[in-house]
Amino acid sequence: MLKQFLMIYAFVISISIVSCAQEKPEVQKKDSVLQSGQQTETVDKVPWNKVCPVKGNPIEANSPTVEYNGKVYAFCCPGCDTKFAKNPEKYIKNLSEDGKKFIGKK
Asked: Which tens digit of pLDDT belongs to each residue from 48-101?
């Protein structure tokens, strides 16, 4: 009985190791370009701002981005990009001229 238990236990552990070791495909984020109210896919570009124009939090390397009027804006989290897309002029006013400081109201 103990041998059967050990065999089953070893089998379960082996299956667990194999399933965890498989490579998982990376999920690619699609950035959007906002021009004249239309959204299309864009290539990877470096954002010019250092803080989120919606919440004022620092941006991360893998942050969502939106291109608007030739500038790429990055955000602190998913959701901020959607808010920005609805009214970009409102949120652009929240950033300093160099994009390093949040000057709006939180």
From this structure: 999 999 999 999 888 899 999 999 999 999 999 999 999 999 999 999 999 899
**Where in the sequence is the domain holding 68, given as residue range(s)?**
32-92
Q: How many domains does the chain have?
A: 1
Residue 27 lies in a domain: no
- Specify the pTM: 0.58
What 3-state DSSP class applies to 51?
strand
Given strand 32-35, what is the order of strands in its sheet?
38-41, 32-35, 65-68, 71-74
In a domain, residue 61? The reply is yes
Q: What is the pLDDT of residues 34-49, one digit of tens each?
A: 555 544 444 457 899 9
CA 32/CA 39 separation, integer angstroms = 6
CB count in 10 Å sphere of residue 101: 14
